[in-house]
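User: Fold this, then the next.

Assistant: Folding the first:
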Amino acid sequence: MGQPVREYLLTLCVTVAVTYLLTGPVRKFAIAAGAMPEIRARDVHREPTPRLGGIAMFGGMCAGLLVADHLQNLNAVFERSNEPRALLSGAALIWLIGVLDDKFELDALIKLGAQMIAAGVMVMQGLTILWIPVPGIGTVALTQWQGTLLTVALVVITINAVNFVDGLDGLAAGMVCIATCAFFLYAYRIWFGYGIESAAPATLFAAILMGMCLGFLPHNMHPARIFMGDSGSMLIGLVLAASAISITGQVDPDTMALFVGGERNATHAMLPVFIPLLLPLTIIAIPMADLVLAIVRRTWNGQSPFAADRGHLHHRLLELGHSHSRAVLIMYFWSGLIAFGTVAYSVHSASMWIVLSLAALSALGLVLLLMPRFTPRAPRWAHGLVPPRYRYAERAAEAAVREDEGVEPAPARPVVAGVSGVNGATAVGPRSRFPDRRKAGSSR
């Protein structure tokens, strides 16, 4: 079991490295290509920022699949299943449409049609839902048309859910990465814990998706230097949906001995059984809730469901008074709580401490949600580990305290950053203290 873990880590690291290294050149290409749309009314960032980050993410995905195909244990996934090729075909199509949309702003209906075609391409190559577990009945086999319609619906819903939540710097990539990490643990447990090889493709897809998000996040954290755009959000949404379809619709629950006699009559006995089978849906619980609320809100107001607005969950957090970074961290918290809480409960459903821990963490999340004015302060020994804005915020707080105590701050030296002072040391003026004021307001 140790060797497969090392191969997954190698695949993950290669995907991270390729995505990270490609993002810089892709940013320059996006600027040169003019993929920097003007600021819209619903946008949070204050100046044009290049898109097309999905190009780097797609390159990372291809590199991860290529490396996995040449590894001893993961190569069996490509030999025994056509799902990796199905994923690559559908991802290439949706990525191409996303690139065109980032540059030319395609119509929403065109993108919706492309999403359905990409899902159909994956279905034609075998990545489809074959059966679903039904409480009280067991495993119900689907006809070809039923499986196709359910697969296409799940792909389209997941893609748009991730696309809707992509509204702040680092939000979509971080939430998908956190949820996919929990999904990877669940899929890996099914493959090696129960010896079910049908879970191998989903485990590989989850590792690659984590690498795509981790490699892109350093460039996308606030203030973002590049956005993933629709080429990235639709891509990771499709990979996430493919992982869910692979493990939910093709892994037979009967092979895990989840059903006794094919039926469970007691509700309390069925609950732990079907919760892990619903895990692929819980990992997009927050984006799905945002999607449903957006459709209801826009329809109620007489607008098109595809009409963009500023009513998403992350916009509401900003309206409560949370900063950009804190709004993102709160969304991270809830995403991780739902995904990892579901995994923990599916493994030890009889443990009361898991339920109590989830309740305590939920209460903590509500407290953080209702304290938008609380400003964290990093200790001096941690200044080298935290972003510069937290160091500057602490200095500003200390200056305010000194001013309240009647101590006048030292006058700023009116010199330009980079010009040496009397003793040959580099002078620190207003611009050197805040090295990039232009980027400081570039939030999304």
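Now the next one, as you asked:
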Amino acid sequence: MTTQLQSAEQLSATTLLRFATAGSVDDGKSTLVGRLLHDSKSILTDQLEAVEQASLSRGQEAPDLALLTDGLRAEREQGITIDVAYRYFATTRRRFILADTPGHVQYTRNMVTGASTAELAVVLVDARNGVVEQTRRHAAVAALLRVPHVVLAVNKMDLVDYAEPVFAAIAEEFTAYAASLGVPEITAIPISALAGDNVVEPSAHMDWYGGPTVLEHLETVPVSHDLTACHARFPVQYVIRPQSAEHPDYRGYAGQIAAGVFRVGEAVSVLPSGRTTTITGIDALGESVDIAWAPQSVTLRLADDIDISRGDLIAPADDSPAVTRDVEATVCHVADQPLSVGQRVLIKHTTRTVKAIVKDIPSRLTLDDLSQHPAPGQLVANDIGRVVVRTAEPLALDAYADSRRTGSFLLIDPADGTTLSAGMAGASFAAVAEAVAPAADDDAEWDI
């Protein structure tokens, strides 16, 4: 079973990468994605023909590769990305799930959606404009969401005569900013998405750069899925009780393993009640197995008849998360309506949804200098801030730094079900950044 687990882990680590693109308006995100798909031969002939026809109808001689991802009518009319565009493609070395996210400030919420499951973020910067406020915002969101790898793609190098000093200055500024946020790995690559320089093929115009192309980096960046090291967590989604002649006493708890590994015979706790029992059986795809791991959907059978329902969390008895009614977290506010102190909300954590009230908003982040604006009273759309929420029922949360799945939650408007904020429990990225900032290496900014 150990060999089977390791094989699944290795396969996941070497064949699939989830990544997101981000950047300010007109930095060339959709063109980069289109160039990646085109030059890696990951688009169909009829798709390319449709793009060529659409480009000709707009008076463009060459195909506009951005149209491969900008599918909404409003996006094509305005030449911008509005919604998150997901694309699936593959090379001989790796499979990819790509989220092309919008650049406008009012669509930062979409960037949060696209990057929430990403293992790598490509942040584009226009070489003519350098690092701007929206660049900092996207770097902050990537750090907040604990995206482990960030690529700085300095685009439109053809418009600055492929000048190395321009690239070097932008890379130095962005690297210092991202490192102060606690981003663990930053790779800077000079590119021209329109001309294809350093996207899939190395550029003939930048012999001063000796690092990887964008695709080469995407194919080789290490993505670790150490399933055995994760804190095992199983949110209960459904209680299976057929009470049939064939299964008169069957009682199983179905759901998707959020993290870690569960084994038959293991002692577990059921939260928030804290009752302990033992796993007597695991059913997966209609068969009994001895071991199961994330992200498998399984049914657990337990030794004792405990009152368990949807929203409860099953975890190892010796490695259970803390149960609390006071949630301290960093949130990115995504709704048009503000989030205010004293506001009643719903908090959705894994499969559990409970009533809550916003007790305090201690601070709001200022992106320009990473300072904290104390006691803002409320958060408006696209604000990032700290909140304290008091729940009506206890929740079993991990710190987001330990588990992106069981450390995250949503704040919801109880009146109409609108998502208000995306939350990450525990320390903010600013606190993490303070701990790692002294270790930043100014000499390791990019590969030359």
